[in-house]
């Protein structure tokens, strides 16, 4: 293979790798702030636009931002109007990346790589991402230099001249080719980076570049479309809206391509900067045209692709795979799902006393359904957290991930205890028509209420990350153990007095105390882990 072709392919690979490294480590550094930005999102479409813009500046990937918007909409956290505004903001935000690529820093690429490497070696584990980010920037500009060197040798090649003539004669074909190539690369920034590299050598005039820029914008819709295939109807609506906005923008601007070229030429005398500016102006024009009528656009999309309400099988609501690459947000979503999981366990725990008291068969079936739902969420959360752990996590994020794993394990243990131990005891009581003594039932009810209070305390500590509440849970463990011993003694007193109900239900009574104490121990284990970690 010709050396120039090897250089060209190597340069493209290095450019894409550099973009990915830079994006990933920017997300790692700014992920915590990203959540705060998202929490401030309101129904105001202009705030949503700014949110999309800022998110893309942070993530350095409009595809990632839009993929998240698809996920949020699927989880019913965003409306279609909000999502479309975020998309428009993201598309404008991503133009900054191309503006940075337009700087000719090829001569400094090796220096940047050296600096990045040194920083990765001397910085602490928490700060290594700064070095990796700089290293990625160096790879980007080195890759672009390699592409420009390779394409410079093709400048007088007959095949290239023929290709450029076709692109000039048939701009629509150029647009379609750019869209297909960008879709296959799943990165409009990478494709535009290649165009900028070619423009540095003068091999690609602005006239031929403009259809390619517009095509790259359309091709950039591919990744969100692919992601939306695994989501709900509203998620697909969002990704289709993204494509529709870009296609409509192209249809408006394409007939006036020569006028658009004149405007672009006025922005700079340098060809690479003109291409970067064309990318910005196209996305800015699309936002300017469609932002005022975004609600109308959402209404039209609902007409074109109407949502059909249909019952969905029970499953996780917040475990969005599209945000796995942003661990801070992925962990926040996992926490929301864990709290949902805890509410099911809470309902099961509350219903145990109702079942023991009322002896209603239908309640036993309800408990089985809750157990089935809890198992579904447990498996989903566990699988999700494993995927999160495979990302680059900060020390704090790793601790958070471990806490979620332990918490979900303890919740699952509680659910299993209720299903495999307490529920069978209730069925035995119903089948044999056994009755607790009034004093015995009151004691079990009091013990259950005490355990429920500790459960609520644990959930509150987990929700608010409250160290003092965790400490209270730890202290309460000994109180629960002492309470169990005291209740066992009073039960034995009734046995000695010959209370018939206590004699008949003795095994059930003592086993219920054991199982409720075991459930309380599950809360205490996680609280003890958290308090020990904080001391360390």
Q: Return the average pLDDT rounded to an integer.
A: 81
Instruction: Enumerate the spans where pLDDT stays under 50 for 5 or more consecutive residues.
Output: none
Helix content: over 70%
Radius of gyration over all CA atoms, rounded = 31 Å
Largest beta-sheet characterization: none
Structural class by sheet pairing and helices: mainly alpha
**Number of helices, counting only DSSP H or I runs of 4 residues or more:** 23
When the domains are counted, the total is: 2
Measured between the Cα atoms of the first and last residue, the distance is 58 Å
Number of strands: 0
Strand content: under 5%
H and E order: HHHHHHHHHHHHHHHHHHHHHHH
Textual characterization of the structure:
There is one protein chain. This protein has 536 residues and is mainly α. It folds into two domains: 7-304, no CATH class; 321-535, Methane Monooxygenase Hydroxylase, Chain G, domain 1 (Up-down Bundle), CATH 1.20.58.220. Helices cover 82% and strands 0% of the residues. It is built from 23 helices and no strands. It has helices spanning 3-39, 45-59, 62-74, 80-93, 95-101, 109-122, 128-152, 158-169, 171-185, 188-200, 206-219, 222-228, 233-253, 257-267, 271-290, 294-304, 327-358, 361-389, 395-432, 438-464, 467-497, 500-504, 506-535. The longest helix is centred in the last third of the chain and has 38 residues, at 395-432. It is elongated and about 105 Å long. The relative contact order is 0.08.
């Amino acid at each position: 293979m010709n050396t120039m072709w090897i250089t060209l392919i190597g340069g493209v690979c290095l450019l894409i790798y550099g973009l990915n490294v830079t994006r990933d480590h920017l997300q790692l550094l700014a992920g915590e702030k990203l959540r705060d930005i998202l929490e401030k999102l309101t129904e105001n479409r202009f705030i949503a636009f700014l949110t999309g813009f800022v998110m893309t500046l942070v993530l350095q990937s409009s595809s990632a931002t839009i993929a998240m918007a698809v996920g949020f909409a699927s989880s019913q956290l965003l409306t279609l109007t909000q999502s479309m505004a975020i998309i428009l903001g993201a598309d404008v935000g991503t133009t900054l990346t191309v503006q940075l690529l337009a700087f000719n820093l090829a001569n400094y690429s090796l220096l940047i790589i050296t600096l990045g490497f040194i920083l990765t070696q001397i910085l602490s584990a928490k700060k290594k991402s700064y070095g990796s980010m700089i290293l990625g920037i160096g790879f980007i500009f080195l890759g672009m230099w390699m592409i420009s060197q390779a394409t410079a040798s093709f400048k007088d090649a007959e095949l290239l001249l023929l290709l450029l003539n076709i692109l000039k004669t048939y701009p629509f074909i150029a647009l379609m080719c750019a869209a297909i190539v960008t879709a296959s690369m799943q990165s409009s920034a990478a494709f535009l980076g290649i165009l900028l590299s070619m423009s540095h050598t003068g091999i690609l005039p602005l006239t031929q570049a403009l259809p390619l820029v517009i095509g790259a914008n359309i091709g950039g819709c591919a990744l969100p479309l692919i992601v939306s295939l695994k989501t709900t109807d509203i998620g697909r609506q969002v990704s289709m809206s993204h494509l529709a906005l870009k296609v409509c923008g192209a249809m408006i601007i394409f007939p006036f391509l020569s006028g658009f070229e004149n405007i672009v030429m006025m922005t700079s005398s340098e060809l690479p900067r003109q291409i970067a500016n064309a990318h910005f102006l196209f996305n800015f024009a699309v936002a300017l045209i469609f932002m005022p009528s975004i609600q109308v656009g959402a209404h039209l999309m609902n007409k074109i692709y109407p949502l059909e309400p249909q019952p969905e099988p029970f499953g996780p609501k917040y475990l969005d795979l599209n945000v796995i690459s942003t661990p801070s947000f992925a962990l926040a979503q996992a926490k929301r799902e864990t709290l949902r999981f805890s509410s099911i366990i809470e309902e099961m725990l509350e219903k145990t006393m109702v079942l023991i008291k009322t002896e209603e068969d239908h309640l036993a079936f309800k408990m089985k359904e809750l157990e089935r739902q809890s198992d579904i969420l447990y498996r989903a959360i566990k699988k999700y957290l494993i995927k999160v752990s495979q990302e680059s996590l900060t020390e704090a994020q790793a601790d958070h991930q471990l806490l979620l794993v332990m918490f979900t394990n303890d919740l699952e243990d509680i659910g299993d205890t209720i299903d495999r131990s307490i529920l069978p005891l209730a069925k035995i009581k119903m089948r044999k028509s056994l009755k607790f003594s009034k004093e015995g039932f009151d004691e079990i009810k009091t013990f259950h209420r005490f355990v429920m209070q500790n459960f609520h305390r644990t959930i509150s500590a987990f929700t608010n990350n409250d160290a003092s509440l965790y400490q209270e849970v730890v202290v309460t463990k000994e109180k629960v153990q002492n309470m169990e011993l005291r209740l066992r003694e009073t039960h034995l007193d009734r046995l000695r007095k010959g209370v018939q109900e206590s004699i008949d239900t003795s095994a059930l009574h003592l086993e219920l105390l054991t199982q409720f104490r075991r459930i309380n121990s599950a809360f205490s284990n996680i609280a003890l882990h958290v308090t020990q970690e904080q001391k360390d």
